[in-house]
Design a protein that fits this description.
Blueprint: E1 2-4, E2 7-9, H1 13-16, E3 22-27, H2 31-34, H3 40-57, E4 60-66, H4 75-86, E5 118-122, H5 133-139, E6 144-150, H6 152-165, E7 169-178, H7 182-195, E8 199-201, H8 203-211
Length: 213
């Protein structure tokens, strides 16, 4: 830990994570997304393990869900995005995949979200854009966030970068983040490591850091 001007600057994982300063952000662990992931079951196991570690440590947990708007409400960018993701050449042919209350929109039941944990919905890739996540973290006096979920190259990366720009320290669980495209996910993880504003660790390393407190 470095100290200057009355500020404590954490350097290690153990100095960065604590129930008093850290939240866990579980990104888009939804039924419809997991079914598209080749390693979905393995990532789900790691995320469930992470959630259990956070609960045991008393860390606040935020679950994110990606939500589709009804097609008529989607707008230019979202329709263009749906065409790209669904490989369609006309907006007439696309369908919203994650409408509220549709089966694919639901979080994986294995996560067993509790009443004292938050679920936030978004139509963006950054978990901070258009959601109350940043306000909630600041209002609880939190300075860092652990992130896990899917997909690394789609939503984890922009959330980490956005969170860092907002002044939070991201902690990325490398073995509890899954990618839809292996090469793209590896590039995203390498870029986040290169930026130097995040801490990268495994689930076991997180557990050890929290148990050492």
């Amino acid at each position: 830990m470095q100290n200057i001007y009355g500020l404590a600057i954490p350097e290690t994982l153990a100095e960065t994570v604590s129930p008093e300063t850290t939240a866990l952000v579980v990104y888009d662990m939804q039924v419809g997304i997991l079914h598209q992931m080749k390693d979905g079951a393995a990532i789900l196991d790691k995320v469930v393990q992470t959630v259990e570690i956070a609960r045991s440590a008393g860390i606040r947990i935020f679950f994110m869900r990606h939500m589709s708007l009804p097609k008529k409400m989607a707008g230019i960018f979202q329709l263009k995005q749906m065409m790209a993701w669904q490989r369609k050449t006309s907006p007439e042919d696309v369908e919203p995949w994650f409408l509220r209350d549709s089966p694919g929109f639901a979080l994986a039941p294995e996560l067993a979200v509790r009443e004292d944990e938050a679920i936030l919905d978004k139509i963006t890739f950054s978990a901070f854009e258009g959601t109350p996540l940043a306000i909630a973290l600041r209002d609880c006096g939190l300075k860092s966030f652990i992130i896990c979920g899917i997909a690394t190259e789609i939503g984890i990366d922009p959330t980490v970068r956005h969170g860092a720009d907002l002044g939070f320290i991201p902690v990325i669980l490398t073995d509890a983040c899954g990618g839809g495209h292996a090469d793209a996910a590896d590039r995203s993880m390498a870029n986040m490591a290169y930026m130097g504003d995040s801490i990268l660790c495994t689930v076991d390393e997180l557990a050890a850091a929290l148990s050492s407190r």
